[in-house]
Structures are given as C-alpha cells and as structure tokens.
Amino acid sequence: MEIIIIGLLLGGTYALMAMGLQLQYGVARIMNLANGEVLVAAAFGTFWFFSATQVSPFVALIGIVPLAFVVNWAIYRFLMLPLVKRAKNQGQLEVDSILATFGISFIFIGILLAVFGGDYLSYSYMASPVHLLGETYGLNRIAAFLGSAVLCVGLYVWLNRTRAGLTLRAVAVNPSAASLVSINVVNASALAFALGGAVTAAGGMMLSMFLTFDASLGVIFTLKALVIVIMGGVSDIRGAILAAFILGLTETVVAILVDPGLTLAAAYVLFLIILLVRPQGLFGRRTS
Amino acid sequence: MQRRTIFKLAAAAVLAGSFGLGSAQAADPIKIGVVGPKTGPLAGGAAVTHFPNFELWAHQVNARGGLKLKDGQRKIELIVYDDRTQPGETIKAVQRLATVDKADFIMAPYGTGFNLAVAPIFDKYGYPQLAQAAVTDKMDELVKRYPGLFFVQGSTTSYAKTAIDVLKKLKDEGKIGNKVAVVNVADAFGIELANAGRPLFKEAGFEIVYDKSYPLGTQDLAPVIKAAKAANPDAFVAWSYPPDTIGLAQQAKIEGLDVKAYYSAVATAFPVFKKAVGDASENILGAGGVKYTPELEKFYKELKDVTGVDGDYWGNPVYYSMLQIIEQSIEAVGSMDRKAITEHIKTHKFNTLIGEIDLSSQRLQWLWTVGQWQDGIFHGVNGVNVSDGKPVRLKTGW
Lengths: 288, 398
Fold this sequence. Notes:
heterodimer; A: 288 residues; mainly alpha; ABC transporter involved in vitamin B12 uptake, BtuC; two-stranded antiparallel sheet; 3% strand; globular; B: 398 residues; alpha/beta; Rossmann fold; 2 domains; 3-stranded parallel sheet; 14 helices; 20% strand
C-alpha cells in the first residue's frame, strides 16, 4: 500500500512534467525542447512570489498560468509558425522545431540567469507530514498530486466534451483532414501550444513546493517529459498520464524493493520494453 | 557584395589593431581570467561559492585604486568565461585566456575534475593554479607533478574522516548508539566519500545498518528516507549533492527521522538549505563550517551588498582568503611576474580573513571540514588541525 501511494505521488509529479509537452507535441507537432525551461521559469516565479509575499504559492498560479499561455502563444505564432509553413512534411517540421526550441531553451536559461541569478532556489511550504493508513507522506506532495489530478481530469474532459477540445483532437489525428472540415489548424495548434505551456507552468509551480531548482535544471524535466510522452503515444493525453503513473510506480517499486540506485535503470528498461512492444506508444495509433 | 565584406573585415582589423596598441600602456588594467560554470549541473553551486568572490575582490581592489605594483597602481579587469560544466569548454577557455586574451593571471576553475583537466595547461603556460573548489585524495601526487598547483582545500578522506570522528566522539561519550544509516548520491564526490567512509565507520566501531546509493537528480527521496528509518539507526549520514541534500532533509522532517545525529555533505552549508528546511536545520551537521568572527560577518555583508549573493559557510571565506593571498603576493613581488608570485606564495605566510595560512606544501594545512547549524549559523565543529570548534549538539526532533 505504501509503495502504491508513494508511486502514485511520484506519478502525479511526472504527469505534471509531461502533460504540457504532450499537448504541444500531440497537437501542434512541435517537439518543444524548451518545455523544461518553462517549468523552471514558473518555479522561479513562484519562488519569487512566495518569498516576497509569504502568501500561498497556489495564488501565484493566477499570474503564472496566463503569462505562460501568452508567452507560449507568442512563441508559436512568431517563432514556430514560419517553420510550420515552410515544412514540406511532418518529419521536417520535427527536425526544424527541435533545433529551434533547443535554441530557445538557451535563451530562456540566459534570461533566468540574468533575472534570478544561477543560485539554487528552494523554499519551505506545506512541508508537514500527513498520516495516511499508518504511513507518513509530505503534504506538499499530496497537494501537488491533487493539483495534477485536477489538471488531468480537467484536460481530459475538456478535450472530450467540448467543441474546442474536439478541434484539438481532430488536428492531433490528422492536420490536413482537419483543415478540410474547416478547422483553422493554425489557430488550433497555437491554442494547444499555448495551453501546453500554461499546463507546464502550473506543473512548475506545484513542483517548486518540494524540489530545489536552479536555472540550468530544465533539461532534466524536458528529458523526463520526453520519455513519458513517447511512452504514452504522442496523440492521446491519456497515454502520457498513464505512462507518468506507470513510471512513478515502477521507480518506487524498484527503489523500495530492490535498490534506490537502480531507479534510473528501471525507468529506461521500461522505456525500452514499451518501444519494442508498442513502438507507437501505449495509446498511439499505428501510422499507415 | 563579397568585396564589401572584405573591406569591412579590413576596417575591423585596423580598428582592432589600434585598440591592441593602446592596451599596451602602463596604466591599463591587470587582466584576470575567471572560468567556471554559469550553466549546467554545477552552475547552482558556482553561483554562490565561485563567481561572487572574484566580483567582490575586484570591486574592493579597484575601489582603493588598484593593485600596488612597482610601476604604479593598476586596476583589475575580470575576463569571465562560462564553461557550461563541460571540461572540454574549461580547457578551451583557459587556453584562450592564456594565448588570446593574454591574461596576467588565471583563477582556477570550479570542480575537482575541471581543475585536474586544466592543470597541464596552467603548468604549460606558467600560471600558478590556486584551486579551492577541488577535493581529491591525490593532492600530494599532483602538487609534485605541477609546481604551480596549490590546493586551498582538504582531501576527500579528511572530509569523511572528520565527519565520522564527530560521530565516534558522540558514541564514545555514550550520547548515541553505534547504528548508522549511510546513503550517497551516485556521482563523483558522493561515491568517493562513501568509499572513503565505509572502512572508517568500521574502524570507529559503527555498524552500518543501511547503505544505499541513489541516482543524481532523484526527484522522490521518500523511499530512501523510509528505508533508512526502517533500519532504526542512531545516526544518519548522507554523502549528498545540493538538490538532494535539501530534498533528504525535507523528507527526513516529514518522516520525523528519529536520529540523534544527522549529517549531509555538499550544500548543507548553503543559506538556501536553511531557507528550505527552516528551523529544522538546527543541529544538522554537514561539510564545511566557519569560525564566526566580526571580520567574517563584515565579509558576508559586503558580499551581499556588492554581488547580491548570500555567501555559504564553507567555500566563500576560504576562497576570499585565497584571493587575499594572491593579492598580497602580487603586491609583494611588485609586478605580474608569475614565477616570482608562485615562489612568494610558497615561501611566505599570509594573514587572511580566516586566519594565518601557510601554503609552503602547496596544500592548506588546516581547514574546517565539519560544521553544524547552531542558532542560525553554520559553525565549524571539527576539521583538519583545528581545535577550537563549537561543541557538537545532538539533533532533538525536527
């Protein structure tokens, strides 16, 4: 039971890292390597807000999420769209966008260094124990898990029950067919990219409650998100969420029952197995 | 089009040439090269322990008119390069400083491996290399090979041994039992400390009830702390790195890890540790420590005022003392004759921020290596050739 709860908490953490990238890659087809930097920027923003006001960092979401939405929309509109228009096929777009966002990630790191300095940033919030079924867990991790659950369910419902969500799913499945039924693919992609950035920023805020950040840490989150998104299958958000929880549970089982030193190895073995058995990912569709 | 480019290049070359001529005059600043990670995995530590010291030092020296040389006072100009935490970049940067920028002096880089990587280049171009952020057990061997290399720092074993000595003393006094849980980060310094520590724990009569490593960048340390707790230890030792040093303490607080002595290695001495762990940081042991004097208090204040950085209670004061040694040696020699400066460092004793330092063996003779958070300051409690450490307190709850 203890293992399951710790694993679920870690899975929630991973879902926060991966959902934003899933939206950006699944719908807008941009493999955004600057995703981790957005997460770190949001964590820094939260840190700054909390240090200045001592108000609950969740309040910072009010500013961080819209800001991340606007910034990511602008990135898509002005930096990614020319690449989308130029690309002859999806393969070329992926290569171009990987290179471009890799560059953007350095710009982000530079801005973070200039604004916040390169020092480690960490603060203490809700770092108190919660007793559940005879075991103790960190309150901030549980709060982040609940936040992650709200985001997961919210996104899923929004994607499946609203017209805008349907539009995004249509673009995710087939952009050229979507444009035939008078869906504005550019707008839908920009929306997905911006929304992905906003979700990532919300994740960064929640992770900042219990992780220590510095300006160069983004690449770690990008890599983890990348593994999860590819494991889950690029075109369905359920895949990323499921993959995040499978990864969290696997790492925890290995850490507790085998050896904490083998968690990374276990994560990548799992990744390899899934790639071998289902190359299209857990929820992916085989491309014809 | 092509011709125009050539003209531009030629114009640029002429400009650069005249600039080069101008910079040969006597009143020009002394060029001092600084290399270190502004980005990459080590950037967080370097932003506190490495870069701010040079900034403060240059600011202070320039504020009083510059370094006093035989041909008059000359100000300092820092040339700073980011090595992106990649040894290849460190090597390139040092090479560039020596050959292109023609720096008068080059400060040693940040990190053990990085210092070892550039030692041959410092040696080749005849620059003294005073390494502060480098901890190794091969110091004696290395200083023999490189006559200009100085370690203003302790060895790996000295860090492990002095920490274990603190625990042994508590055990011998009957204050704690003999069961210790040890964890380490599976990365360079963490592995070295763990390997140095194992036989020392045995020798000191400790029973290691839990001994595991975890990967660098582990985001959930709950399993590690839970397992350590289940082993029911009297003392907890983590040979850890910055993000996990903080993560472990936060998790131990949540779990209420009931030990009478709690030690974690790198970054326990950082102000961010206290910020992140709060009052629970009281009585936590860690690598580093200072003897807190009014001069030191003044140093931290000036560091904050000039650079905006809250200094750590480990490297910063030693780093600054090392810069004082360099400054005193340059002024005593009266020129930027690097050979004479190296010789001066080897043959004199220096009064510094942290006390008298003698580098005649190319190694620091004394150093605080174990500190403890007591009333909001990370005081030195044990070290190499130090005797006036604060008495160690027991960890009583979180």
